[in-house]
Amino acid sequence: MNGSSTIATIVILAIGLSALTVGTNGWSTWTAEAARRQAVVERPRPLPAYQLLDSRGESLTLAQSERDLTVVDLIYTQCPTVCLAMGAQFRQLQSELATAGLLERVELLSVTFDPANDDQSTLSDYLRRFGAVEPHWRAARFQDNDELAASLTDLGVIVIPEQSMGFVHNAAYYLIENGRVIEIFDIEARTDLFEAIRARLAT
Amino acid sequence: MTTSTPSPLTGSARAGILTYMGISALVYVLMMSLGLVMRLTQATWLDLPPNLFYEVMTAHGAGMVGISGLAGSGVIWYFLRRYVDLSTGILWANLTFFLTGVVLILGGIFLGGYAGGWTFLFPLPAKGLGAWGVPGAASFLIGLLLIGVGFLLLYLDFARAIIAKYGSLGNSLGWPQLFGGSTDESPPAAVIAATMVLIVNIAGILAGAVVLVLILVNLFMPEFALDPLLTKNLTYFFGHVFINATIYQAVVAVYEILPEYTKRPWKVNKVFLAAWTASTVMVMAVYPHHLLLDFAMPTWALVMGQIFSYLGGFPILVVTGWGALTIVHRSGIEWDMAARLLFLSIFGWCVGVVPAVIDGTIAVNQVMHNTMWVPGHFHMYLIVGLVAMLFGFMYYLSNQSKRTGIDKVAFWLYLVAGVAFSFGFLTSGMNSIPRRWAVHLPEWVSFSQSSSAIAAVVALAALVFALRFLTSLKHARTT
Amino acid sequence: MSKNQRLAAVSSGLLILITLTPVASQLTSTMRGHVLLQIPLLVAVGIGFGRSLAPHLVRFLNRWNAMGIPGILITIFTIAFWMIPRWIDASLTNTSVEWIKHSSLVLLGGIPLALSWERLYPVARGAVKIEFLSMLFRLGWLYLISPDRFCNSYLLEDQIWLGWGMIIIGMALTLTWLVPVFFGEYAPAETGHSSPKNPNEAPNAA
């Protein structure tokens, strides 16, 4: 091999390996979902002060809360699959928090991304269905569709309408402190979420 | 073309072959010593902690399989280059990959603590239970992967060179003569064997390259749950083909050296061609006889495994054994060390097949497979068959094949102790002594004690062969 | 129009078709279309451009591409990068990533492949083919067993489709490449021992 090709090979190996390393955050982040969660932890982002309306008609915003922490999950009430699991997990979390005496300090918030179908009364039904203890667990909807879309993009949520199932979306729990998402949890990781809440509130 | 046309073996090619065989001679003695250490531990004469025993067992298995692959490929390369134009650069590239892989494997075992056996059965690499962690297992698996890459390059070079001369692998297997009624001269035996070996080993390495990477993925990301049965099938396809192919490489020494000694050609007739073509398929289809205990395997696969273990080894063994007998018969051959060891190796191969066939029988396998019967089968086949063949080639290559007193003694000790050592395993298996156990029950210890003594003799005889080769490298052949 | 110009025109047409027309969104509407059609087509466009380059340009590039090794490495890294699910997803949500994907697969995926393939030593060509096959089998297997979606933009069902697609394509390619190796006639079969040839002149091996 001649000199220029040897140099080219070395440069290509260096650039190629760097591109793969950077592109996977050091061989750790292979999917967009993992990248999104990692980015949130590294750079907590402030949430916009969009107005939401809960099932009792009270207005609220993700940017501010009276409580120390807020846990948000994104749902739609007709969901036949993963939101059911999330609802059940939220109920568990609610009782775990109550047992630990932390329920007063944490707000559980289910936000619908299907405001066309989910009105106030549907959201009330949803809360009742999962045994929500209000006002600790609330359900709310965006009043403006553009604001909903912007928030979903902000959070990196991708909703795919699907014929037989309604919507498919990357479901997760968002832990919010002072109007910033500080961590995103897998829907199976309720225990981790609970431990994270406890650790935050203990300090 | 039935006799070879020796072309000069000089410079980097000669150095390459001598390095391959020199490393092999050393490693065989070293790995036999590790085997002896294991037998001594089971005999309670050596106090080795169990985790170290399993590390030694892993090193012994991986080392023996790896070095047999290297030595076998050295033998076939040496003879194949007499017919086709092989690349010396690739010969050295394979060695470089091999040695890098060996470093990673030894690091994984003795620094990383990996002791899950050379067969790295899924999910064992990920279940070190504190004995080893992800780094140890990963280092071992990446080492195997690198060794596979090296051999892949070597066999692709065989393919390139053979196709350049014969046009296609069908031609170099002698299909026009076998099926097409062609009356042209058949390709020489070395080319036929090399074709078979490159086919099965490239297929095996492809399976290995897939399964090793997937096990590595699982190691770092356990949420990717591999199907254990599929993983086991691919692992055994890769491993069994690879170790099986070593003897089909080494046997070329018989095809080339005996004609040279007897001045008679090795006849490549239709039966010979048919045997090698049939075995090409069967070597790849026989591995399920290692999975006869897996009740989840489909029945047809197990039946295929049994039938092919009955048939698989036979065609080549029969044509080789018959060919060797007829070529030697009344030839006035001079029985130097190379000729003796090569002839012994065919005997060892024949005898070693018998326990394999018995083990390949489903009814027997269900009670024998996890006993020492199985190491008995492959130790006989490897010690008295493959390794004898390789040492025979080394004597030939060294040009110092004349028998001296010490060679004679070593030969008979190797033969008698090699067979006795294997029978030690076989009788242990018949007495239901399990294989792969560091600590034995008191009533098993006497088996291990007698085997230890015999194993020491085998290793000593091999040490003589190895030293004879290593001390005569400068006299080695140049053709 | 010369043969080169025709090839360049066809490649440009194909490029426009798969990036600027509604066909583009059709191709990326499913994961299988994205990975098994759009990406290979972009590489194919690059191959077309690479083959129609002016001879003096090829001569210049060849000086930096001894035995095709640097070129094939560029192709391998480019394709490997676009097999990372995160960037497949990003190319759907971020227009600049999408354009980087299109241009890199053509310029760094296809063109170097066209300029390097014939120059590679046959053993290297065989190794690239074997590695390509094992990549298809590995990724296909991973897609089939993944408990989660790799891409937020695609359904799990689609991912399983892709997994099977990769395995089937891998098997079909294996057969396609094997048949000439066994039954083809790369060189006239000679009898007798031939003098050693320059290995670079040897025909395609595997």
Describe the structure in brief.
The complex is a heterotrimer of chains A (203), B (479) and C (206). With 479 residues, chain B is mainly alpha-helical.
Considering the chains and any ligands shown, give keywords for the structure.
heterotrimer; B: 479 residues; mainly alpha; Cytochrome C Oxidase, Chain A; 0% strand; C: 206 residues; 9 helices; disordered C terminus
Strand content of chain B: under 5%
In percent, how helical is the residue content of chain B? over 70%
CATH architecture label name of chain B: Up-down Bundle
- In the predicted model, the low-confidence regions of chain B spanning at least 5 consecutive residues are none
Q: Tell the overall outline of chain C.
A: globular
Average pLDDT figure of chain B: 92
Shape of chain B: globular
Report on this model:
The complex is a heterotrimer of chains A (203), B (479) and C (206). With 203 residues, chain A is of the alpha+beta class. Chain A folds into 2 domains: 3-30; 44-202, Glutaredoxin. Chain A has 6 helices and 10 strands. An 8-stranded mixed β-sheet of chain A has the order 1-10-9-4-5-6-2-3. Chain A has a two-stranded antiparallel sheet with strand order 7-8. In chain A, strand 9 (173-177) and strand 10 (180-185) form a beta hairpin. The mean pLDDT of chain A is 87. Chain B has a single domain, classed as Up-down Bundle (Cytochrome C Oxidase, Chain A), CATH 1.20.210. Chain B has helices spanning 11-42, 50-80, 88-111, 134-166, 169-172, 175-178, 189-220, 228-250, 252-262, 270-285, 299-311, 314-328, 337-359, 362-368, 373-398, 405-430, 445-470. Chain C has 206 residues and is mainly α. Chain C is built from 9 helices and no strands. In chain C, helix 1 (3-20) runs antiparallel to helix 3, helix 5 (69-81) packs antiparallel against helix 7 (95-116) and helix 6 (85-93) packs across helix 7 (95-116). Chains A and C meet through helix 1 and helix 2 of A and helix 5 and helix 6 of C.
Break the fold down into its secondary structure elements and pairings.
The complex is a heterotrimer of chains A (203), B (479) and C (206).
Chain A: H1 3-23, H2 32-42, E1 45-46, E2 51-54, E3 59-61, E4 69-75, H3 82-99, E5 106-112, H4 120-129, E6 137-142, H5 145-155, E7 159-162, E8 166-169, E9 173-177, E10 180-185, H6 190-202
Chain B: H1 11-42, H2 50-80, H3 88-111, H4 134-166, H5 169-172, H6 175-178, H7 189-220, H8 228-250, H9 252-262, H10 270-285, H11 299-311, H12 314-328, H13 337-359, H14 362-368, H15 373-398, H16 405-430, H17 445-470
Helix pairs in contact in B: 1-2, 1-3, 1-17, 2-3, 2-8, 2-15, 3-4, 4-7, 7-8, 7-10, 9-12, 9-13, 10-12, 12-13, 13-15, 13-16, 15-16, 15-17, 16-17
Chain C: H1 3-20, H2 22-28, H3 31-51, H4 55-63, H5 69-81, H6 85-93, H7 95-116, H8 122-145, H9 156-183
Helix pairs in contact in C: 1-2, 1-3, 2-3, 3-7, 3-9, 5-7, 6-7, 8-9
